[in-house]
Amino acid sequence: MTNNAETLALAERFVGAIARGDVETIQACYAPDARIWHNFDEIEQTLEQNLATLGWLSKRLTNRHYEIVARHTYDGGFVQQHILTGTLKNGEKFRMPACIVCRVKDGRIVRLDEYLDLAATAALRA
Q1: Pick the CATH number of 4-125 from 3.30.930.10, 1.10.443.10, 3.10.450.50, 3.30.70.1060
Q2: What are 36's strand-pairing partners?
């Protein structure tokens, strides 16, 4: 069982690693068989697929920062509302509100459900 302080520390470590593009720490935060789901396509990703997606994001968005709007633990995980900001390759500023719900077991994320407006990612995909 993971306590609230450990869960909050995991959330902080995980989000910080994504902001820095630290793939090793991101991978260490996930359980090896973790599944990642997004509301816009309703498809589960494997850890490897998610790491590839995060690598893609790192190439398209520099100066990444997560403004944490709210973060709460619950028995078995955490939920976080945030705004991802950064700079696009063309120099324009990027801003995307999102929410993640993470299930945690033995100190690692076993499932992440991410909710965002796909239209907000259009500038990334351009």
Answers
A1: 3.10.450.50
A2: 45, 112
pLDDT digits (tens, 9 = 90+) for 89-125: 999 999 999 999 999 999 999 999 999 998 988 888 8
Tokens matching residue 58 = 């790192």
Do 12 and 22 contact (CB within 8 A), yes or no?
no
Instruction: Give Cα 67 to chain centroid, integer Å.
Output: 12
Domain boundaries, the chain: 4-125
Q: Which single residue is written with the structure tokens 């028995």?
A: 75
Token pair listed for 116:
């965002």
Task: Give Cβ neighbours of residue 93 (< 8 Å, ≥ 6 apart).
Answer: 85, 86, 87
Each residue of 26-75: pLDDT tens digit?
999 999 999 999 999 999 999 999 999 998 998 999 999 999 999 999 99
Interatomic CA distance for residues 37 and 4, integer angstroms: 23
Is the whole model's pTM more than 0.85, yes or no?
A: yes
- Give the per-residue SS3 of 48-79: HHHHHHHHHHHHHEEEEEEEEEEEEEECCEEE
